[in-house]
Amino acid sequence: MTWRDTLEGLKQELTDVRAHRQRRVDEDEAGLQKEREDLTGMAQTLGINELLAEMNATLLDGKGAIETFVGWESGPGDPELDPGISMNGDEPDDDDEDTDVITTILSWEEAGEMEIAIDLGLSDDGIYLQINEIEIRPEREALEQGLIEAFRDELDL
């Protein structure tokens, strides 16, 4: 086999490998998109925004603020959502993927800044739900109870 034939054979092999890799990347991306759509649907099914809005209206007389951050839609330069920058000054874990999470925060002023943060995200084990970094079952009843406990904890009731 001549040098040129070897290069041509290698070129074809390289083309095949690249096409296979691209198919795998496309399949992985489609799977991730589906998981993110499921996560968004679960946030709506659980009624996270509605529950926090009801807490704000009933318990805080509407004086609180509700913000939602969708990790995979965050813009560049947002220091709160940049996985390379931690809000508490700790170094981020290398395997900590903050892009596959929807964070909804109810914050208000009452003898200082108070907040209840809900994280609904994807991990290697599936979908998780956390309130102020405490993991709970991703079910409406557990969410309601967890929000009441988080509110009590935040105010030391």
Verbal overview:
This protein is an alpha+beta fold and 157 residues long. Helices cover 45% and strands 22% of the residues. A five-stranded antiparallel sheet has the order 1-2-3-4-5.
Shape: rod-shaped
Mean pLDDT: 84
- Please give the order of strands in the largest beta sheet: 1-2-3-4-5
Q: Given the structure, what is the number of helices? A: 3
SS-derived structural category: alpha+beta
Q: Span between N and C termini?
A: 82 Å
- What is the helix fraction of residues, given as a range? 40-55%
Keyword list:
single chain; 157 residues; alpha+beta; five-stranded antiparallel beta sheet; 45% helix; rod-shaped
Secondary structure: elements and pairs:
Blueprint: H1 3-46, H2 48-59, E1 65-70, E2 101-109, E3 113-123, E4 126-131, E5 134-136, H3 140-154
Antiparallel strand pairs: 1-2, 2-3, 3-4, 4-5
Short description:
By secondary structure, the chain is of the alpha+beta class.
